[in-house]
Amino acid sequence: VTLDPGAMGMFGPSGAGGWWPLWLWTASLVLVTGQETKLNFGHEMLSEFGLAKEYTNLNHGSYGATPLAVLERQQEMTRLTEANPDRFFRYEVYDLLAAARRAMAEYVGARVEDLVFVMNASEGINAVLKSLLGLGRDADHGSSKRVLCLDLAYGMVKEALGFLQDTRGVAITEVSTDELFPVAAAADFESRLMAKVKSALEEASAARRPIDVCIFSHITSMPAVILPVELLSKACRSYGAKSVIDGAHALGNVPLDLASIGADAYVSNGHKWFYSPKGTAFLWVSPRLQGSTEPYTNGHIYPLITSNEGKGETPYTKLFSYEGTKDYSGWLAFPAAKAWRLKYGDAEIIRYMHTLAMQGGQVLARAWGTQLLAPAELHAAMVNVELPTSNCTRAAELSHELLTQFHTWVPTVEKSGKCWTRVSAQVYTELSDFEYLAGAVLELLS
Ligand SMILES: Cc1ncc(COP(=O)(O)O)c(C=O)c1O
């Protein structure tokens, strides 16, 4: 894989007005074209973000990073809120939220009335799981439900299921993926994973204890791999199970078309890869399940018909529109985040990140004499590389040492008996950042 600026749609001043110093060129473009200024992907892009100068962010995947232009829009929304709280909360916020939801729905191939905002994937997943498994208005209270997940499910998902197991008698089937890693060929991984999931669904069905709900990550957290969510949803549907997709890492990281996935519910974060501010996520629920889907807070909009609070196209969207006084500014900056992405080109961003992640992963594996966990087809912008130690307790200490001694941070995980790190590429990272990490880890382990 090579990083070819032309092929990756890089932008920049090269060739145009070449005798100008770079800073003058950039500054003049800002003055003349304002929003339309485009910088080259790589370190030049750091000026678009608020990251500290000394920090090398190789962990965009955990919390994302928001462009300054998007934060400026969020601050405008905060100023609007503070200028006249009554006007904002009583008359303006719902229409502004609807416009932001429309912008998001268009981007992910969904109908606006099926998509609501939640603070983060944790809130969305908890709301939908609790609704499907016993808390919703039309839910089948009392009968014990069965859920299928993978051992790759995010910790929060496993803990939410554990809570439902302890408090609602929900039974959990966890499918192990340990023997599938490291992956040599994506197609082989996919078919072996599908065989395992289908066999667990079949076993439950044969024992007359069919699975009610399946939950899968679209892109798993640690280690990070893309899962075949269309096939997984289809398999669950064929056994009468509903599918919930935890797409926390998907929005902005891979092209997303919710209609084609065929899930019953889908949650994604904006703050990870879509460049929206922290605390911005969406929940999409298929129309047939919206009647039993409840937000976290029920005190404001009940009964639905007579409540004066909230506003929405349907009872479901109305329920999620108001959960008390809180900061709506992040969601209202969604359209600005979308505009920022489109300015740089959605496909170009995704391609640059993926190409850099794979090339950076090779740099690390070569420097450490190790291997990548999976081939390129299973990766978006995060790559997993085996660390040059077999002591995973020691490996886990590296993250904090990297932060305090090298101003960078990457997570570590033990999978299939080996220690791995997950490294994120972004439009503001370059191959030299991966080289820096390679050296830092070798120094810490020496
Ligand atoms: C797969 C997955 N799901 C859910 C989450 C939770 O996201 P949040 O902390 O924004 O709720 C994460 C966070 O890293 C994740 O990786």
From TrEMBL:
<feature type="domain" description="Aminotransferase class V">
    <location>
        <begin position="66"/>
        <end position="394"/>
    </location>
</feature>
<feature type="signal peptide">
    <location>
        <begin position="1"/>
        <end position="34"/>
    </location>
</feature>
<dbReference type="Pfam" id="PF00266">
    <property type="entry name" value="Aminotran_5"/>
</dbReference>
<protein>
    <recommendedName>
        <fullName>Aminotransferase class V domain-containing protein</fullName>
    </recommendedName>
</protein>
<dbReference type="InterPro" id="IPR015422">
    <property type="entry name" value="PyrdxlP-dep_Trfase_small"/>
</dbReference>
<dbReference type="InterPro" id="IPR000192">
    <property type="entry name" value="Aminotrans_V_dom"/>
</dbReference>
<dbReference type="InterPro" id="IPR015424">
    <property type="entry name" value="PyrdxlP-dep_Trfase"/>
</dbReference>
<dbReference type="InterPro" id="IPR015421">
    <property type="entry name" value="PyrdxlP-dep_Trfase_major"/>
</dbReference>
<keyword id="KW-0732">Signal</keyword>
<keyword id="KW-0663">Pyridoxal phosphate</keyword>
